[in-house]
Structure prediction request, 350 residues.
Amino acid sequence: MFKKFDEKEDITGATQLKSSVQKGIRKKLLENFPHIEPYLEDILPKKENFKLIKCKDHVELLADHTGVVRFMKTRNTDFVPTLRTLHKYPFLLPHQQVDKGAIKFILNGSAIMCPGLTSPGAKLTATVPKDAVVAIMAEGKEHALAIGQMLMSSEEIQSVNKGYGVENIHYLNDGLWHLAEKSIN
Amino acid sequence: MSDNAEGDVAVVRPCLAPGPTEGVNYPLKVHYCGECSMPMEYCDYSGRTEACRTWATTHAPEALEGLSIDDNAEENEKKHQKRGGKGTSKPKDKKKSDWRLQTFEIDLKVATKLFAQKFACGSSVTGADEIVIQGDVKDDLFDLLPSKWPQITDDSIEDLGDKKR
Prediction:
């Protein structure tokens, strides 16, 4: 989704949000990621204002007061942490681990195929429903390499074992990854 | 339609996300490679493992320990392009005119006030080091800045053009 994301072309505007709206977003984040609670203050300090950056294709990004993008929202998902945020707080999303062979394809932006999730090197977290946003981990690696959205539930992936299992939303070295590296003015 | 889906996710997710590990201090500090920008364990897949390795040996030798970078692990010759560039988005009649004022030890609040008065238009501090002036006042601003603050010289002002923000 963010393969070709470019800040010059894809960003249509940034707005300072009203504090009531910010409160709403914070509440929503807490609701979606209950584990975030002790850390939300570090990610988006209450005292500071964060910005909403609107982009093409119904994509919205949340940038903290220093301009670093912390959360993203796409047409089909609610606010989810970006990879950089996820690396710092890996417990926010359910993990799905793929085998070694899948890594290079995922880093190229491809969707995660079912066999990559069911083979011996992989670990499929059970009972994750369809459409849930998950962190894609890799065999033998410590950090997440992508963030995806389940196209089937875990059980279906296990039983069908064919075709796309998880859609690749955001991965290492895609456009958004490079964007999150520096702050946006 | 999405109502239902979202509801599901919100209800189910709490029990699936692993939650913080006891005894670990968050945020985690992740070592990113200066070459390929990925966490160092993924350098194998960067397509220029050599460069990554050189970088790692000079900048973060301690992080290399325990990481085995296999020389020809992945023959991935694809070079991903570096994305450069700065600044973004659209101007309209709002001109974002200048930042890095803090480098000159200027109080941003005072500056906004002054801009608002001088140019008879809205002006606000929007970021850590950023002021938005509503109005097409760029040229006047270039005159005003050096005369108001002697530490700013003409050379230190750079017109970044119509930058979207």
About this structure: The radius of gyration of chain B is 25 Å. Chain B touches chain A through 47 residues (CB under 8 Å). Strands of chain B lie at 94-99, 123-127, 130-134.
